[in-house]
Amino acid sequence: MPTQDFTAQARQIYEEVLNKGELDVADDLVAKNCVGHSGSEEIRGPEGFKQFAQGFRTAFPDLRFTIQEIVAQGNTVVTRYTSQGTQRGPLQGIAPTGKTATLTGISIGHFGPDGKLSEWFLNFDELGLLRQLGVVPAGMPATMPMGMAAQPQEQPHG
After folding, report:
1. What does the pLDDT read at residue 2?
2. For residues 34 and 26, is the Cβ–Cβ distance under 8 A?
3. What's 2's DSSP letter?
4. Model pLDDT for residues 37-87, shown as the tens digit of each residue
5. Signed CA dihedral, 13, 16, 21, 27: sign only
6. What is the rounded distance in angstroms from the CA atom of residue 19 to the CA atom of residue 64?
7. What are the structural domain ranges in the chain?
8. Most CB atoms within 10 A, among 2, 37, 81, 102?
9. Measured at the alpha carbon of residue 127, what is the angle toward residues 103 and 122, in degrees to the nearest 5?
10. In what order do the strands lie in the sheet with 100-111?
């Protein structure tokens, strides 16, 4: 039995919703019970997806996603992308900086039998974004060197 290729739907999300800002297209592409995971945030349904996308489009009005690679297996689509934009609006409490940022990310989307996005996971270079915006100093290490992790504290006896 042939499986459906959902890459066209994933490309449509990036091109029409994220790049062009045609947010209402999400109503046709995102299931009502869809759950998105981005960091610790959960984004629910088409309305939540539109609010999530609008937040980034408000902060970066010239935001542009470029798909670098897209792979599908069964109902799962993995997309590796690059995005670029100039921060001209607030972003999660960060005042507009006027700085242009370029970042990379990967999304994993699961599609239902109706062809709509039913669950998605997003992972992007948040630290790189904050550095480019000047919020985090460029010299700050991304991770702690080996051996510098917090050591367990001795518990008092008694």
Report:
1. 47
2. no
3. P
4. 998 889 999 999 999 999 999 999 999 999 999 999 999 999 999 999 999
5. negative
6. 5
7. 7-132
8. 81
9. 60
10. 41-44, 30-38, 117-124, 100-111, 76-86, 64-73
Return the pLDDT at 146: 47
Q: Which two tokens stand for residue 16?
A: 């029409």
d(CA 111, CA 44): 15
Instruction: Encode pLDDT of 23-38 as tens digits.
Output: 999 999 999 999 999 9
Q: How far is CA 127 from the centre of its chain?
A: 13
Tell me the torsion sign for CA atoms 136, 58, 11, 26. Answer: positive
Per-residue pLDDT at 87: 98
Residues comprising the chain, all counted:
158
Return the half-sphere exposure (C-beta side, CA atoms, 13 A cut-off) of residue 25: 17
Q: Cα–Cα distances in Å, from 96 out to 36, 64, 91, 100?
A: 26, 18, 7, 11
What global pTM score does this model have?
Answer: 0.83
Structural contact between residues 105 and 83, judged by C-beta atoms closer than 8 angstroms: yes
**What CA–CA distance (Å, rounded) separates 71 from 125?**
20
CATH class of the region 7-132: alpha beta
- Amino acid letter for position 15: E
